[in-house]
Amino acid sequence: MKVASWNVNSIRARHDRLVAWTAEHRPDVLCLQEIKVENDQFPRESLEAQGYRWALWGQRTYNGVAIAARSELRDVVVGFGDEPGDAEARAIAATVDGVRIASVYIPNGQAVGSDKFAYKLAWLARLRAWLDRAVDPGQPFLLCGDFNVAPEDRDVHDPAAWAGKIHCSEPERAALRQVLGWGLVDVFRRHHEEGDHYSWWDYRGVSFFKNRGLRIDHIFASASMAARSRGCEIDREARKGQNASDHAPVYATFDAG
DNA sequence: ATGTCACATCTAATGTGA
After folding, report:
1. Which protein residue has its CA closest to C1' of B8?
2. Is the CB of A9 under 7 A from strand B?
3. Catalytic annotation on A136?
4. Of A90, A92, A137, A249, which residue is 20 to 30 A from A179 by alpha carbon distance?
5. Whole-number Å distance between alpha carbons of A252 and A27
């Protein structure tokens, strides 16, 4: 099973690139974030023509998450079911070929100490609480998405410059560790120990050209799925050229269960 | 170098969020 995750930063702006990417890489499951469109405006047909089905939780302008899969998407759930906190479309889960898979878009947080930063930390705590009550740690499970957190300094192009800043601050990293502490493994780090691998580069300036990025997009796996993982890569090629998202897709392969 | 995108709105330059 090949599972990919990509913050496309608008499905409409990224449509042609996405269609070309899935045609080339042919993931079995694709988790998307920031689709930025309501379900009834979502361009389902292009990937359906490649054999995919959809689970969608769209939203106008901001946010919006989706899962595409070649097999049936069972038991689709949107949000955490902890109203009234579920106003923003940031989480969707489905079961595909016996694997529970979630696509999540963690709030950006804007700046350490801001109201949005507090919301980000609270959202990560709600994510952990959702794992505790809604997912069986013994089952095959993948938590995929844009976490807006670089877990360690080796995930940061310039740790000194980013120290204490948004995406890299200790409160965010601690909140992310709480999520991982549920029983999740960073699949990318199972296969790559070294730094200089990033999944996001600022649109401004020469950040991509100079590889000044952060690794904030992740595929986290339960123990049984981590044991089945055979590789994990970030497709830097997808960040190149005109009309690219500011995020590159990350993808992992797993042995059959 | 507050440098680029994407989207929205009293359709045209500006605000918001990233």
Report:
1. A61
2. yes
3. no
4. A249
5. 9
